[in-house]
Amino acid sequence: MNAKKLGILLVAGALAAGLNACSSASEAPTGTTGATASGDGSYTIGVANFTLGGPYFSGMDKAIAAQAKKKGNVEIISTDANGDAAKLASNVEDLLSKNVDAVIISGGPLESAPAALNSIKTAGKPVVLVDRKFQTGEYTSWIGPDNKAIGVQDGQFLAEKLPDGGKVAIIKGGPADNSIGLARTDGVKSVLGSAKGITLVEAPDFGNWGSDGGLTVMESLLATNPDLAAVFCENDAMCLGAQRAIADAGKAKQIIIAGVDGQAEALKAILDGTNYVVTGLNDADIIGSLGLDRAVEILGGAQVEKDTVVPSPQVTKDNAAKYLDPNGGF
Amino acid sequence: MTGQLTNTRRYPRLVLGGRDLTVEVVFVTLVVLLVAVAASTSDTFLTQTNLTNLLKQMVTTGLLAFGMLVVILTGGIDLSVGSVVAFSGILSAGLVSGLPLPVAIVAGLAAGIVFGLINGTLVARFGLAPFVVTLAALTTIRGLAFVYSEVPISPENESFLTLGSAMVGPIPLSTVIMLAVFLVGGVFLTRTPAGRSIVAIGGNAETVRLAGINVRKHVILAYAISGACAGLAGVILASRVGIAQPSVGVAFELDAIAACVIGGASLAGGRGSAKATFGGVLVLVLINNLLNLYGVQSFWQQVLKGLIIIAVILVQRTNRART
């Protein structure tokens, strides 16, 4: 009896799901034909996160969901690949089989995701990349920061702060082929490498993008180069660890710090007038919500820009208060 | 005939001055050699800054390695320690904003013990494989750390930072705590009935059971000790960094296992000592420190670290495999 009932329920459920899928599939084309329909048609958008292990990426995922909620008619299905490229591809396939209208990929440090992009292309769905632009493969649109420009910004600020030159250390996140970090460091080097009197010291060990890594790498740097004048880290989390190491060594007055991202604790340190002097805002909230907007625009049939660089304003003591949101996710 | 066969299968022995090298001699030689090379080739090595760095940087690996040793002695393994570090750190950093400092520290430690008790119970009472249980715990506890807080927590109470940065004379407080754990732990394993039972279980659990000793209870105790060490390491690390991150401690279990293995502990259980494990920790930390001082690129550091671990184990094995 019970088994029979269950069977009927299952069949009914499957039918309902099938009908649902049909209706949403038939809605998508109407959406693309008439721009006016975009306000009425409801969409399901799949989000494929390469990783949520880091405040920046989890903030991005939340921002996408929050923006979808604001729109009211967009449902989000979010997935996490736990830092595994193969899992990302299978997550995308799962999303496609759930018949999402569009996919947003937050690719973290991935250079490319050919398998994921191919299956989306085969399914004929639009794909919006947030933060990470893939070097190969076809995508509909990309929204993200210019990492090299952020590095250049930090470099220029440090050069101004160090008119007499001095040693500037660079703490990298790693691994060696992480092109986000490379772009940031390249930016800094392009300015400071030619600046008068400035010597660059690259830490041999990676800080692995975390505060604990930044701390240990900085400790080693302080042992080998006690006369540092400044340190640049590829993200704020590492800088915050480095700041602790510098404070422990009693060198807070000697060494200034430049980071990237705009993590809340870093903004607070900058605002408080510590030796943490500058960061470049790489706002996950803005990039995430713009990414969702972009996906909805595409589904509505709008012609959109292919690549959009979100500006990364320089944050110093003068304007840190403006960016420090005590309730913000990141 | 068979006896001869086993004889011919002997591994080559390393002999020094007519005597076989023991694990202890290998260690002392290795550490002295490393320090001598370091001191003579790098101006920085013997500076106070660097020596303090060394002392600070061995704390996390040291604490985790001792806990790991206790579990390995029973023939088990604890892969969850890195996640416990993250959870305990972020829990105590979160609690310290509203609660007194000692309560927050104890809560971090207690969380580690609770996780250890759960791991131990699943292994001992339900007979599940330690590898599987603690692998599941690794992902569960990491998830819980993110559930507690997705974003890093910087404790509002400044006194939280003292645990990680206070000095006792020239030695960091955290290092003193770790050394105390090894000293007390060493005595526990060699001199107390409970400690000796843990070692004996790894040798032959059935014999221990027949001797009237409660095997389950001691296995659970071993995992609880490992959890406690990981909890303590997590609190100290969060205090040292000044920010607790839910993502901290990934792959920390590997260094802890490596330290035990370099220290001659057998993954089959029953063999290993606190002293030798501490030697293993020293070797690992010295290698890291030296490669950094020489400015060796990070990927070469990984390669060299792996090769050195294999080399040390080979040396030990050649001198142990005499039956």
TrEMBL record, chain A:
One of its GO terms (molecular function) is carbohydrate binding. The keyword Transmembrane helix does not apply. InterPro entries: Peripla_BP_I, SBP_2_dom. Keywords: Signal. It is found in: Cell envelope. Residues 45-301 form the Periplasmic binding protein domain. It holds the Pfam family Peripla_BP_4. GO terms for cellular component: cell envelope. Coiled coil: none annotated. It comes from the Bacteria. Residues 1-21 form the signal peptide. The keyword Signal applies. Belongs to the bacterial solute-binding protein 2 family. PANTHER family: D-ALLOSE-BINDING PERIPLASMIC PROTEIN-RELATED (PTHR46847). This is Ribose transport system substrate-binding protein. It comes from Streptosporangium subroseum. The lineage of its organism: Bacteria, Bacillati, Actinomycetota, Actinomycetes, Streptosporangiales.
TrEMBL record, chain B:
The keyword Translocase does not apply. It is a multi-pass membrane protein. It is found in: Cell membrane. The keyword Transmembrane helix applies. GO terms for cellular component: plasma membrane. It holds the Pfam family BPD_transp_2. The chain crosses the membrane at residues 21-42, 103-124, 131-149, 169-189, 219-238, 250-269, 276-293, 299-315. InterPro entries: ABC_transp_permease. GO terms for molecular function: transmembrane transporter activity. Keywords: Cell membrane, Membrane, Transmembrane, Transmembrane helix. This is Monosaccharide ABC transporter membrane protein, CUT2 family. It comes from Streptosporangium subroseum.
